[in-house]
Amino acid sequence: MVTDDQLSELVALVARWALGAKHRIVTAESCTGGWIAKAFTDAAGSSRWFECGYVTYSNAAKVRDLGVSERTLAEHGAVSEPTVREMAAGALRVTGADVSIAVSGIAGPDGGSPEKPVGTVWFCVGRRVGDAVGARGAGVGSVAGARGVGPVAGASGAGAGSGVAARGTDARGGGPNAAGGPDFELIAEGEVFAGDRETVRRASVKRSLDLVLQFARRE
Asked: Cis omega (within 30 of 0) on the bond before 109?
């Protein structure tokens, strides 16, 4: 199982990058229930780079607070790539932050299905790009025109189920949250984690932080 020490080490890396890049980060969480925001605020000095966190546990909260489309939820469900993309883009839009982290999943022990078993979690990290970086409060970014970056063979992270294929994509262009303004770059991926509710949630927090650091390495 992922430990608190492991999460603290990852947060320290995220903090170092955010401070160096002068980025402010916002979280949009569902199944992790604010755990990512807690991990951030456990770190002294996090007010210098952490903007705020949303716990949009219900579908209604995702629509109301982050602007997720009701159609997206009806067609794809809360645990899906389209939904976390809209969560990540919406969090950037409503806060003006530079980087967002969105997560939605089925931590169990109930709620799974053959198509989305318990342990299924979708993640998306978004950031402002180009001239939009640092332009907080400047408008909605765009999320369509996706290009695939290929399948992720096997689930990653502590507690992950083996041999589970996931998808990751980058996106730029116009999308359901687009209303003009700066572009957003989004990277999303899905995982299926093995283990109980605690294990799935801890693994989801870790994977979220890992995904932020993927963005950091691209800069």
From this structure: yes
Contact 119, 195 (CB under 8 A): yes
- The stretches in the chain having pLDDT less than 70 are 130-182
What would the pLDDT profile of 117-159 be if each residue is shown by its tens digit?
999 999 999 999 865 454 444 333 333 323 222 222 233 333 3
Whole-angstrom CA distances from 59 to 54, 87, 94, 97, 114 are: 13, 11, 17, 23, 21
Q: CA dihedral in degrees (194, 63, 177, 112; nearest 10)?
A: 20
Q: Are strands 184-192 and 166-171 parallel, antiparallel or unpaired?
A: antiparallel
Question: In this structure, what are the phi and psi dihedrals at residue 167, rounded to the nearest 5 degrees?
Answer: -120, 145
> What pLDDT shows up at residue 167?
40
Cα angle 174-186-54, degrees, rounded to a multiple of 5: 105
The pLDDT value given to residue 130: 64
The single-letter code of the amino acid at 195 is G
Burial string for 118-145 (b: 16+ CB within 10 Å, else e) reads bbbbbbbbbbbeeebbeeeebebbbbee
What are the DSSP E strand ranges found in the chain? 25-29, 50-55, 99-105, 120-128, 147-152, 166-171, 184-192
Using CB atoms within 10 Å of the CB of residue 161, give its burial: 0 to 12 exposed, 13 to 18 middle, 19+ buried.
middle
Give me the pLDDT at residue 218, please.
84
Grouping H, G, I as helix, E, B as strand and the rest as coil, residue 19 is helix
Structure confidence by residue, pLDDT tens digits, 177-196: 332 235 899 999 999 999 99
Q: What count of residues does the chain have?
A: 219
